[in-house]
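[Structure tokenization] protein backbone as discrete codes
[Encoding] learned vocabulary of local backbone shapes
[Protein] chain in single-letter code, fold in tokens
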Amino acid sequence: MDLDAFDELLTPRGQRALAEAVELVGTDPVAAATRLRRTYDAALTSAALTQAGLRERARAKFGEDAGRMYFTPHGLEQSTRTEVAEHRARHLTEPRSDTPPPADAPLADAPPADAPPHGPGAPPHGPGAPPHGLGLTDAPLRGLRVVDACCGIGGDFLALARAGCAVAAVDTDPLTVAVARANADALGLGDRVTVSVGDAAEVRPEEYDVLFADPARRTSRGRTFDPMAYSPPWPVVLDLLSRASRACVKVAPGIPYEFIPEGAEAEWVSYKGEVKEAALWTGQEGAGRRATLLPGGHTLTAAGAEATVGPAGRYVYEPDGAAIRAHLVGEVSEIVNGRLLDPMIAYITGDDPIDTPWASRYEIEDVLPFSGKKLRAALRERQVGNVTIKKRGSAVDIERLRSDLRLNGEKSATIILTRILDKPSVIICDTSPPA
């Protein structure tokens, strides 16, 4: 889909084509294209079918909003899940406290109509106004002024605008800018958001209350985990951070710690048990490491806890990935009154059945030195026919092991492949009839 095809998609004729394409999602793609081609040209047919398919995929991230939004394939892949974007918006617009609000708490209300539009005492125009090409609308807007330096299709600025912020957004790609602008309009937020084609390196974050940046983490060869290969590259991001009074930068969860700026708070976010992303916060109280669980809104911060190492107890705890990424395994171990099985592996063992959102708990039935033959015999003895395999610190190929086990029984089990004091081991847990 190119810019001309997308522009046509926004016309009344294009909207009719898109509505028809949405009705055809899930049907045979050749038949769907043939049907649309009876009425529309090839370019519009392709754009409509592509957009309908992207909307269907986007429901996992954007819920009902996806049915009104527009996407590019790369934009959808990198865009932030709505729940995570709303969490960040709350983090920016609500007062900090040690106990974060629940994930379903309403976003902060905008200031009253007679409040200064751009912060205490700031005029809507003049020295504090957005630079040329990044201007907000002429109508006064309430709340924080945010510049989104690489906005993509707009997933983050939509949450910020709904939280009462006035957002000036830029992206280098004209098609992406058109898609982002259409999303702001489609969700009724066009009066709070201005989207322009621009280079993040030329953004002047010092002229806004907050900088937000989500550097692209894809190259022509695919996804990159090297911040120096981000777009914009890491030196540009650091320059923007150095000039911003407050900032939030979205990064990959696996960002090397040496790239985290001194004085920044690094937050790893997990949604329903899966680590989604990390964010670096500057210009606010608090620094160090933080993990957040959504949708529950639980937060854990570094307190200097150090886990001891000891023998296997009755239970094994698997910490949430956000806590592991944030190097908070010691804090989780303290919560469950546990100890590590191995000083280098993030499995915790304990003697008490403690419920916590920060770890999954499994009851241990046996701990064995790893041997495929002995494991198969132990599972057959327990009449296990269905097995969930987890591993950390093990080189075993899970799918090959599953095939080699050749199980046939009525019970289920969870097995954990790991190292215990540098010895390859397997923990057999939770042998029970299938649910």
